[in-house]
Design a protein that fits this description.
This protein has helices spanning about 1-80, 85-100, 135-140, 185-195, 230-240, 275-360, 360-395, 405-410; strands spanning about 110-115, 115-120, 150-155, 160-170, 175-180, 200-205, 210-215, 245-250, 255-260, 265-275. It is α+β, with helices and mostly antiparallel strands. A five-stranded antiparallel beta sheet has the order 2-1-5-4-3. A hairpin with a 2-residue loop joins strand 8 and strand 9 (about 255-260). About 25% of the residues are buried.
């Protein structure tokens, strides 16, 4: 019985190891597939980001080149001591060209030159407007000779997000600038989000304000300050990692973010919602685990039940063997005792028969007759016991002779 228990435990362990082995293979395959899928998603995000960054840089470069050209001409005019009116006329003439060059994303050129504000559209500022205190002037003066991009702002008249490109001139106190609408960048993010599987495409400035976003409602938000949002979670992870691609989880969903910096310290981010993709990968894994658990749940009780039946059968077999052995021992004993007892009885009956033949005393003959009757009865009982022993041993002989039923019953 102990051997069967050990065998049963060994069988369960073997089956469990086989199931765990195949389950391990499935898990390894799942991890490999997960890694490949993640790499594919990252590659897709990288392609989207690089393509968008190239378009964005090209768009900004167009405005930057136009401003550089205007700045170069104004520098020459300053060196030649041209009048303010002549420089203002140049700005007026250059404004339509700049508008055409930027596909009318720019309203034209303006600047603060020789202590005078000049506007290509002849816009006259309010009396409290101080050009030297404006962000575009300050930013240009902080980086002499470079085209700087000033933080985006919402144009009160057009209700569009605008950025300002500005450049200082050679005299060290004059600045030329132009406004550039972000509508085209917004279109880039929307078209890219619709064309690809990306969940979000967005452009953030160096302060993490949303300049362009595939969801227009997000424009103008500062993701570094607005907590509890997906944008805030993305920016927080971006600041904590040195990798271009990283994964985040937010409200039960998983995302892969690919971020790439633009030339002006802005950042473009392509965000893919990978929840459904990974869920499709997890379904076969979960089904395999459930199947393994069900197999073990069914197999273990069957093995235990089989073990119990085997033990019970062994017990019954052992009891049967013991019963047969006891019966054989009893039959052997009865057979031996029948022979041993019959021998002295025959001797007694033989001696009693001698008394009956030779004795003449009536009293003794009466006693002898009683002995004969009792002895024959006892001998009959012994013979019957011997017959039962033969029946149990399968050695009884049945003789085909006529008999009287009434005498048998008697």
């Amino acid at each position: 019985m102990k051997n069967h228990k050990k065998k049963n435990i060994r069988d369960i362990a073997i089956y469990a190891l086989i199931i765990l082995f195949f389950l391990g293979i499935i898990i390894v395959y799942y991890l490999m597939l997960y890694s490949q899928t993640r790499e594919s998603l990252i590659k897709s995000g990288e392609i989207n980001a690089l393509s968008s960054v190239e378009t964005i840089n090209s768009y900004l470069a167009t405005g930057s080149d136009a401003l550089m050209l205007s700045g170069y001409t104004l520098d020459n005019m300053l060196r030649e001591n041209k009048t303010n009116e002549e420089m203002h006329d140049y700005i007026r003439n250059q404004t339509p060209a700049v508008a055409d060059l930027t596909s009318h994303s720019s309203t034209g050129i303006y600047g603060y030159i020789n202590d005078e504000y000049m506007d290509g559209l002849d816009w006259v500022p309010d009396a409290d407007y101080v050009p030297a205190e404006r962000p575009w002037y300050i930013a240009a003066m902080n980086e002499p000779g470079k085209v700087v991009i000033v933080d985006p702002y919402l144009d009160a008249e057009t209700h569009t997000i605008m950025i300002t490109l500005a450049k200082s001139l050679c005299d060290g106190k004059s600045v030329v600038a132009m406004d550039l609408a972000m509508d085209q960048l917004q279109s880039i993010t929307e078209v890219l989000a619709d064309r690809t599987d990306s969940y979000i495409e967005m452009i953030l400035d160096d302060e993490y304000n949303v300049i362009a976003h595939s969801d227009k409602q997000e424009i103008g938000k500062n993701y570094k300050q607005v907590g509890g949002t997906l944008g805030n979670r993305i920016v927080s992870e971006y600041l904590d990692t040195d990798e271009r691609a990283f994964s985040i989880k937010n409200q039960g969903k998983e995302y892969i973010v690919y971020a790439i910096s633009l030339e002006n310290n802005w950042v473009f981010m392509s965000v893919s919602d990978t929840t459904s993709v990974y869920m499709r990968l997890q379904i076969p894994l979960m089904l395999s685990v459930v199947a393994a658990i069900l197999i073990l749940a069914v197999l273990v009780p069957l093995l235990i039940s089989s073990n119990r039946k085997t033990i019970l059968a062994e017990k019954l077999s052992l009891q049967t063997e013991r019963a047969i052995a006891a019966s054989d021992a009893k039959s052997s004993f009865l057979s031996s005792m029948s022979h041993e007892i019959r021998t002295p009885i025959n001797a007694v009956l033989g001696m009693n028969e001698m008394i009956l033949r030779e004795c003449e005393d009536e009293s003794i003959l009466s006693y002898s007759q009683n002995i004969k009757t009792a002895g024959n009865t006892l001998l009959g009982l012994i013979n019957d016991i011997l017959d039962f022993s033969k029946i149990e041993a399968g050695k009884i002989e049945i003789l085909p002779v006529d008999y009287d039923l009434s005498s048998v019953i008697t």
